[in-house]
């Protein structure tokens, strides 16, 4: 089984970051259901996006590589790994503040756990996505 990274960010802060073992698509559906329970359809859109990302890392545990091969392409070249992974972003508390500006207050990011370096990267992205607008 793969390790799945689940990050929840609210208003520029990580409120939850955990790693679960399981099947990626089942965990994504569980998170979608949970977020749907918190969603206010009168005030917010409910958005689930899947993005395929290519990441490069220096070190990956061999067991992790075997577990994520079901979901991603893994290439090794001179000790570096190039991994193609699905990243799901679920936004369930958001609003338009102008014609071209959108605020994401609460999101989940769900993806494969590869290593702590990528975990930190996805946490930073979640903070940035949900950060209150400046000014």
Largest sheet: number of strands, sense, barrel closure: 6 strands, antiparallel
Structure class: alpha+beta
Low-confidence stretches: none
The amount of beta strand, in percent, is over 45%
Helix content: 25-40%
In short:
The chain is α+β, with helices and mostly antiparallel strands and 135 residues long. It contains 3 helices and 6 strands; from the N terminus they run ββαβαβββα.
Topology readout:
Layout: E1 2-10, E2 13-22, H1 24-38, E3 47-57, H2 62-68, E4 73-77, E5 80-98, E6 101-112, H3 116-130
Antiparallel strand pairs: 1-2, 1-6, 3-5, 4-5, 5-6
Question: Mind explaining what this structure looks like?
Answer:
- With 135 residues, this protein is an alpha+beta fold.
- It has a domain of 93 residues.
- The chain contains three helices and six strands, in the order ββαβαβββα.
- Strands 1, 2, 3, 4, 5 and 6 form a six-stranded antiparallel beta sheet that branches.
- A hairpin with a 2-residue loop joins β1 and β2.
- The protein is globular and about 50 Å long.
- The N and C termini lie far apart (45 Å).
- The model has no long low-confidence stretch (mean pLDDT 95).
Summary tags:
135 residues, alpha+beta, six-stranded antiparallel beta sheet, 27% helix, globular
């Amino acid at each position: 089984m793969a390790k799945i990274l689940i990050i929840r960010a609210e208003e520029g802060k990580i409120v939850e970051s955990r790693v679960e073992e399981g099947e990626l698509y089942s965990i994504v559906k569980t998170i979608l259901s949970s977020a749907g329970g918190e969603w206010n359809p009168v005030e917010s859109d409910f958005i689930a996006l899947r993005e395929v990302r290519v990441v490069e890392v220096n070190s990956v545990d061999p067991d992790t590589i075997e577990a994520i091969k079901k979901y991603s392409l893994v290439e090794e070249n001179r000790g570096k790994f190039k991994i193609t992974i699905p990243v799901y972003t679920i936004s369930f508390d958001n609003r338009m503040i102008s014609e071209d500006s959108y605020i994401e207050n609460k999101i989940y990011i769900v993806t494969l756990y590869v290593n702590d370096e990528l975990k930190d990267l996805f946490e930073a992205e979640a903070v940035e996505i949900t950060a209150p607008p400046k000014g």
